[in-house]
Amino acid sequence: MASVVLRDITVRYPSSAAPALSGLDLRAENGEFVVIEGSVRSGKSTVLRVVAGQETPASGNVLIGGVDVTGLSPQDRDAVLVFQNYALYPHMSVQDNMSFALRVAGVSEAERLDRVREAARLLDLEDHLQRSPAELSGPQRQQVALARAVVRRPAVLLMDDPLASLPQDLKDPTAELIRTLARTLSVTTLYATSRPGPVATVADRLLRLDSGRLVEDTADTEIGTH
């Protein structure tokens, strides 16, 4: 597990006069499931990219597990970002999609297989490992995208609204699945969304951003008692 701390983070984009994030301070404790709510251009997705190392802040520091990772590359941060877009490799089986990053990282074949089997069990994908993404439903593809992140066993899991594209009747059970997954793996999770809906009910904390600033934190309220 690892805490995530943003200290006085400012991010500016050349196309916008106002900063995407403005002096933002944010903290997620070890193993917390934190939902970050905000409208379009509130800065919520930028927060995830800053933590993942895909966006370099103009000022401020990013700490993961108490270590300043501001200057580290994404692959050295032990944080994995799951997008709303599944971005699966269409020519690979589910199993190969899940294990690809591990193979690139030089993880042994036996270890890769163990991790894939564990993630498949947690996400109910055991019967689909040899299928192609084209043979799966939208929700199943999202599960594969989650599994692909899980097999890497990150200290921090970053989610950019993976429920957004799911049918309404699948959002509640999938939100609960994500929360159970985060708890089972003891992984600190930041989940960005414009409509918290079902994930708000399983969150440890709910943060709200507006124009790149933190305007609400539900720490010490009933949402923090899950």
Can you tag this structure with a few keywords?
4-stranded antiparallel sheet; 24% strand; alpha/beta; 10 strands; 2 domains; single chain; disordered C terminus; globular; 226 residues; 6-stranded mixed sheet
Structure commentary:
The protein has 6 helices and 10 strands; from the N terminus they run E-E-E-H-E-E-E-H-H-H-E-H-E-H-E-E. The chain has 226 residues and is an alpha/beta fold. The chain has helices at 44-52, 94-104, 109-122, 138-150, 168-185, 197-200, and strands spanning 4-11, 21-28, 33-37, 59-64, 67-68, 79-82, 156-160, 188-193, 205-210, 213-217. Helix 2 (94-104) packs across helix 3. It has 2 domains: 1-78 and 156-226, 3-Layer(aba) Sandwich (Rossmann fold), CATH 3.40.50.300; 88-153, no CATH class.
Number of strands: 10
Under CATH, the homologous superfamily of the largest domain reads P-loop containing nucleotide triphosphate hydrolases
Mass-distribution shape: globular
Q: What structural category characterises the helix and strand content?
A: alpha/beta
Helix content bin: 25-40%
| CATH topology assignment of the largest domain | Rossmann fold
Regions with little confidence, pLDDT below 50 for 5+ residues: 222-226
CATH architecture of the largest domain: 3-Layer(aba) Sandwich
Domain count: the total is 2
Mean pLDDT over all positions: 89
**How far apart lie the N and C ends?**
18 Å
H/E topology pattern = EEEHEEEHHHEHEHEE
